Each structure stands twice: as C-alpha cells, then as structure tokens.
Amino acid sequence: MTVTVIVGTQWGDEGKGKITDLLARDMDMVVRYQGGNNAGHTVVIKDEVFKLHLIPSGIFYTNVLCLIGNGVVVDPAVLLGEIETIRGKGYSADNLRISSQAHVIFPYHRDLDAAQEKKHEAGRIGTTCRGIGPCYVDKFNRRGIRIGDFFNTDLLRQKLEWNLKEKSFYLNNFYEMKVNYNLEEIMNEYLGYFHAVKKLVVEESSTLVNEAVAKKKNVLLEGAQGTMLDVDHGTYPYVTSSNPIAGGACVGAGLGPQKINEVIGVVKAYVTRVGGGPFPTEIAGQLGERLREKGGEYGATTGRPRRCGWFDGVVMQHAAKINGLSQLAITKLDVLDELDKIEICVAYELNGKRITYFPTDVYRLEKCQPVYEEMPGWKEDTTKVKDHKDLPANAKKYLEKLAELANCRISLVSVGAERGQIIKI
Ligand code: GDP
Ligand code: IMO
Ligand code: MG
Fold first, then answer.
1. Which of 44, 76, 218, 283 lies 20 to 30 angstroms, CA to CA, from 86?
2. Is the pLDDT assigned to residue 122 strictly greater than 90?
3. 328 - beta bridge partners?
4. In b/e form, how buried is each residue of 95-116, taking b as 16+ CB within 10 angstroms?
5. For residue 119, what pLDDT is reported?
6. 303 CB-near residues (< 8 Å, 6+ apart)
7. Is 390 an annotated catalytic residue?
8. pLDDT at 300
C-alpha cells in the first residue's frame, strides 16, 4: 500500500498529467486535490491527446476510482464537457466521483477575474481568467457555494441571490462593467449541470479516501499548478489562489500527513512559466523560441506561449524543501537533445552576494541574477531510450546534476509525450 503525492516543482506544466497517468495503472484511487480548470494536464495514449482540466489523470483506467477532491473549484460546464470528450473517445467516466465540498465557479467569478485583470492598477497577474481566484476568495470569505448546496434548492437560491447582488454591485460600480445577472436563468442552468453529474457526487469524500487508505489501497494525490505558483510559497502575488504543494494534498483530499508515504516532484528538464511575474532563468530571443517550439510550450488551457528558461537549481532546492520530496520524475529531457551546451542555474547573485535560497519577496527576486554552470549537450535522440544505461553519457551527467541539486533520487525520466516514452530507474 502506498499513498503518493504528485506535485509540480516549478511554475506548472511540468508533465504532471503524463506522470499521473503512468503511475495510475498501479493505483486504486487518484484524487485531484486543488486548483480548477486553470490546470491543463496532458495525457497522450498512442496518437490520442487528452487535455484534462478537472478530471484526475487516472480516468483512463476503469478500475481506478477518480475523485475530484474537496480542495478543487469546479466549473460544472467544463466538467461536463470533459466527461463527454472522454466518453466520446470510448473511455468511461463511471469511475469518477466529485466531492460535495468542492466549491462551484459561477459566471460572476469569471467576470470578476477578467475585470480584475483588466483594471488591476497594481499589476496584472496574467491569470487564466477562469474565475479560480474569485471562487477561492468566496470560499475563504465563507460566501462560496459548494456542490453539496445543490441538494437544497431553497438554500442554493438564497446563497446565489445574495452573491449576485454583491457581485453585480462590485462589477458595475467599481469595475464599471455592465452585468445584469438573472437569478432564475443561472439557477436553471446550474441545476441542469447538477442533475447531469448528481450521481457522481459523494457527500463524504474524505471518508472515501481514508477508507481506501485503511484498506491498504494504492492512492495517488494529483496536484495542479506547481510549487512556484503556491499562494504561500511561490512568487506571490504572481501565483494561483490555492496550495499546489504537497501539504495542500492533505487539505484538498482530507487526509492526515502521516498517511503519505511518497512525494514525487515532477521536474521539467528546463523551466517554463505562463503568465506574469519574475523568472530568473528566462531565455530571451531565438534559443527561448527554439525550446518553445521543440517542447510544444503553449498553454494546455489558454494556448498562450509559455516563457522558457534554463533549469533553476535554486527553485529545485526550494521545491525539495517545501514539499519534502522523496523522488523526482524528470520530464522532457528529449527537448534538450539537439543543444550543444546547456546552462544550469546553481545559485543567484543578489546585491553582489551569492545566495542559494529562494527569496520569498518578488521584489528581491527581481534583482537576482542567475549563476550558471555550463554542461555539454549530448546531441543524440533520446526519445526511444527505454533503459537508463542506454542514455548518452552527457544526458546521464545532466540528470546526476539535477538530482544533486535537489538532493533527491530520480525514479522516472520522461523522453517523450506518449505514455510509453519513459525510463524507470
Ligand atoms: P501538466 O500541466 O504538468 O500536466 O503539463 P502539461 O500537460 O500542461 O504540459 C506538458 C506538455 O509536455 C504536454 O504537452 C505533454 O504532452 C508534454 N510532455 C510530457 N512529458 C514529455 C516528455 O517527456 N517529452 C516531451 N517532448 N513532451 C512531454
Ligand atoms: P497546470 O496544472 C501553468 C498560472 C497562470 C497565472 C497564475 C494565476 O496545467 O500546471 P489563475 O488562473 O490560477 O488565477 O492564474 O497561475 N497558472 C498556471 N500556469 N500551469 C497551470 O496549471 C496553471 N494554472 C494557473 O498562468 O500566471
Ligand atoms: Mg498544464
């Protein structure tokens, strides 16, 4: 029996979907523990590409129970679309469950997200505009509407009416938008979604998780986003509104920390970021573009081009510390195959001093200059390699350097998007 957390160690898009799908084969349960449809997790099975935003990436195995945990915020229209897509491709979604404690994204959350991004004088975050932040704000302000509220229509109408009044005032008067929400229309639309997924809703989702653990099942807790987007430990305010870190898995699934046996950090062999905020190892110009093209670095949710940078060992050490990583899954090694030389950031220089800790303040972080060590490339195709011993010598050295910086062992190396392109160590 193992309880494993899969966590992104950078700014998201490390390949969590691929690694979750891969490990899900040996799992009994996969739980998504935070975020919403700001996430885009790609699973490639032969020539079919799935981009999952809400459904756990274990859904392609019918014997794996997949739970959207209490920590997730759910846009029900997106969820239904995803269920249809999966069914349309011949897979079943009957093994999906949704926590009744998960909060629901309404149109006013999306409108507030967009309005804030448009007006934000203090600087834009570059959000996905999916309403994630405003939905979590309501959750923590105790004004949120949870899936469980849909079982009581009168209570739901009351909560929604209050929210519509408050949000309309805010949007029309402060954000100078012209919204005119209709309570009954939104009630009908959302009750329609609810009835379509009602039989998948579980009222005691943490009991479901804890019973699986008590029965010595294999449980995987799938994080979205990544450590550097964590609202507490990332590059605040350029972060998402939840806790993607391993600790967030306990909150978002309803499980005690002592039950977790393994924490797998998913690590891209270089770094990407989508949205605003400091990014010390960002590569400007042609080389950055080359990595973007080779790595297909375009957002799985918004299609925005991702900013590309060299591997950042300071970020790696920060992620190893905050998450208590026990294993690393390195992804996209193949994207570096053609490079002559590869830079690795081993420290930052801040005001003339060399530092190896990650500054918690973005204004200090903006002043940091990366200190690089150069490594020779391997100039060989790695996409068909199945065994670590068959990797080019320089690729092995590169991996050793990453493991050394993380002070953690590598258990998986991914050399292509497809499910089978993996090296187990
Ligand atoms: P996630 O959000 O962490 O699940 O990552 P995304 O799915 O948003 O982004 C990762 C992208 O890289 C997707 O397009 C994957 O199909 C692709 N990918 C994953 N692993 C590899 C790999 O080892 N090599 C290559 N070339 N692509 C990969
Ligand atoms: P996955 O799970 C990469 C980024 C946005 C923005 C910031 C806040 O696929 O790795 P939000 O809409 O969450 O309020 O936006 O966070 N962001 C992601 N970047 N991958 C993601 O998810 C992301 N989810 C949010 O671009 O900078
Ligand atoms: Mg993604």
1. 218
2. no
3. 265, 410
4. bbbbbbbbbbbbbbbbbbbbbb
5. 86
6. none
7. no
8. 80
Query: Of 384, 411, 385, 416, whose CA–CA distance to 399 is shortest?
Result: 411
* Span(s) in the chain for CATH 3.90.170.10: 266-424
**Ligand 2 centroid vs 12 CA: distance in angstroms?**
7
Q: Which of 206, 324, 326 is nearest to 256 (CA)?
A: 206
**Gyration radius (Cα) of the chain, Å:** 21
E strands of 137-226, at which residues? 201-202, 219-222
Question: Hey, what CATH topology would domain 3-99+202-263 get?
Answer: Adenylosuccinate Synthetase; Chain A, domain 1 (3.40.440)
Residues bordering ligand 3, an ion, CB closer than 5 Å? 13, 40, 300
DSSP result, 294-338: HHT-B-TTT-PBPEEE-EEHHHHHHHHHHHT-SEEEEE-GGGGTT
Query: What CATH architecture is 266-424?
Result: Alpha-Beta Complex (3.90)
- The ranges of the chain annotated as CATH 3.40.440.10 are 3-99+202-263
Retrieve residue 413's tokens.
């190396």
Provide the pLDDT for residue 174. Answer: 94
For residue 266, with 0-12 CB atoms within 10 Å meaning exposed, 13-18 middle and 19 or more buried, which class applies? Answer: buried
DSSP label at 141?
Answer: T
In the CATH scheme, what is the homologous superfamily, with its name and number, of domain 103-197? Answer: Adenylosuccinate Synthetase, subunit A, domain 2 (1.10.300.10)
Q: Whose CA is nearest to atom 3 of ligand 2?
A: 12
- Taking the centre of ligand 3 as the mean of its atom positions, its distance from the CA of residue 174, in whole angstroms, is 33
Distance CA 401, CA 388 (A): 15
Mean pLDDT of 350-376: 96
pLDDT band at residue 130 under the 50/70/90 scheme? very high
Ligand 3 centre to CA of 419 (Å) is 16
**Could you report the per-residue pLDDT of 154-213, keeping only the tens digit for each?**
999 999 999 999 999 999 999 999 999 999 999 999 999 999 999 999 999 999 999 999
